[in-house]
Design goal:
15 helices; 6-stranded parallel sheet; 3 domains; inorganic pyrophosphatase (n-terminal core); alpha/beta; Diaminopimelate Epimerase, Chain A, domain 1; elongated; CBS-domain
Length: 432
């Protein structure tokens, strides 16, 4: 009887690396790689396949299978020719994954929010003290880097970084990793990239900038995921969804650079999968048109990707204010006493301006300290609302070089938010 390890179709390096890692954990097992793999994985396997216990699905004797181990997916539909094992009561199923839950029911499950599935398997390899050679370390590092964007995606965790260090300590080759992670672009890929540049639609949803493309393709084109990843950086959007249309199918490839837009979850809602930073789905045109797919994605973002905290949750209040005729010395004494770095200038509940700690650098002589605050205050100031998103306010502060923003509701100032407040939120330093 036999144990087989398998993964999803359009196998990427994290999936391949996870299969290889699992064959080390499950003694005597065989890795089953789907026929459809990414171009980069295909290039790797063309020269490295014989170094591992890997076969195609049509080479498996399913009558001899007693255990199925699935990695990097939890969906039966994404597996290649594994339906023969579905529903069989005489086999054991185990699952290792870092995506959303799927329809595979397993007796043993390791499923966590982490940058790469291979990181979960590396954890177990370390625990069992299973030795890695330079080749296995290198392929695992490629998989880890690919799924975490070289440890830059928002879904990356400290454990992913520790796992990368562990692999480098076991002689993972960065030169080989760089070769397979950064393949040269062929003329066809360049043509697609230029086509995307001409047709991108950018819209703002919940303060995030989202890019959409619908691209018609003739024939099979590889490395589309790499093109989409690069293009998101080029056009500087928070998330990008590209719908590639070929014959009777539409393939959506999505990439996100912010943790509030989980493209893997969005893709799972339309029949695909992925993780926070990357996802994909394939749909039949006869079931849903490309424009309808785009509208469905927009609807999902609008209804499911809400930020949990608003400016009202992190602003400071009550607000300290002074009248425009208050002397600069009195203002400085108030700021020192209250331990604040900015004071609003108001008269009869009307906001006139703001003075901040840096404004006191303008005071060179004693007579300057006696002058009224209206002589030094900043008059043209931006405000925000209590229901604004911290990410939205952060962009406003960055664009305008602002350190303080009054929070206004129904014409009245109800609080103030500072750059420090935003940084504490973004770096998860809010008080419990």
């Amino acid at each position: 009887m036999q144990t087989i390890i398998t993964t999803h179709k359009q196998t990427d390096f994290d999936a391949l690396a996870s299969v290889i890692a699992a064959t080390l954990l499950y003694s005597g097992s065989i890795g089953v790689i789907p026929k459809e793999v990414s171009k980069n994985v295909q290039r790797f396997l063309s020269t490295h396949k014989t170094a591992f216990d890997l076969v195609l699905p049509n080479e498996v004797d399913f009558d001899q299978v007693e255990k199925l181990v699935v990695v990097d997916t939890a969906s039966w539909r994404r597996l290649d020719r594994m339906e023969k094992l579905r529903g069989r009561e005489d086999i054991t199923i185990e699952l290792w994954d870092h995506h959303d839950a799927g329809d595979i029911t397993a007796s043993y499950v390791v499923q966590e929010d982490i940058g790469a599935t291979v990181t979960l398997l590396i954890r177990e390899l370390k625990k069992r003290e299973i030795q890695l050679n330079p080749l296995t370390s290198t392929v695992m590092l490629i998989g880890l880097y690919e799924d975490t964007g070289h440890l830059t995606y928002p879904s990356t965790t400290p454990e992913d970084a520790y796992a990368a260090g562990y692999l480098l300590a076991h002689q993972a080759d960065l030169n080989v990793a760089g070769f397979f992670l950064n393949p040269p672009y062929e003329e066809r890929q360049k043509e697609i990239l230029f086509e995307m540049m001409k047709e991108t639609e950018k819209i703002t949803i919940n303060a995030f900038k989202i890019g959409f493309n619908i691209i018609s393709l003739e024939g099979k084109t590889t490395t589309l995921s790499s093109i989409v990843s690069m293009y998101r950086s080029i056009i500087n959007v928070d998330a990008l969804f590209v719908i590639f249309v070929t014959n009777d199918r539409a393939t959506v490839i999505a990439r996100s650079g912010v943790d509030h837009i989980d493209v893997g979850h969005i893709m799972s809602r339309i029949g695909g999968g992925g993780h926070l930073g990357a996802g994909s789905a394939t749909l039949k045109i006869e079931d849903i048109a490309p424009e309808e797919i785009k509208e469905k994605i927009i609807s999902l973002i609008e209804t499911e990707q809400h930020e949990r905290i608003h400016i009202a949750d992190i602003m400071s209040f009550p607000v300290f204010s002074v009248t425009p005729d208050t002397s600069m010395r009195k203002v400085h004494e108030l700021m020192t006493k209250e331990g604040i770095r900015g004071v609003l200038v108001m008269e009869d509940d009307t906001l006139l301006g703001i003075v901040v700690i840096w404004d006191f650098k303008k005071l060179k002589y004693e007579k300057h300290w006696k002058k009224p605050v209206k002589a030094y205050m900043t008059r043209d100031i931006n405000t925000t609302t209590p229901d604004a998103l911290p990410s939205q306010v952060a962009k406003m502060m960055l664009a305008s070089d602002l350190g303080h923003l009054p929070v206004v509701h129904e014409g009245k100032v109800i609080g103030i938010v500072t750059r420090t407040d935003i940084l504490n939120y973004l770096y998860d330093l809010l008080p419990e």
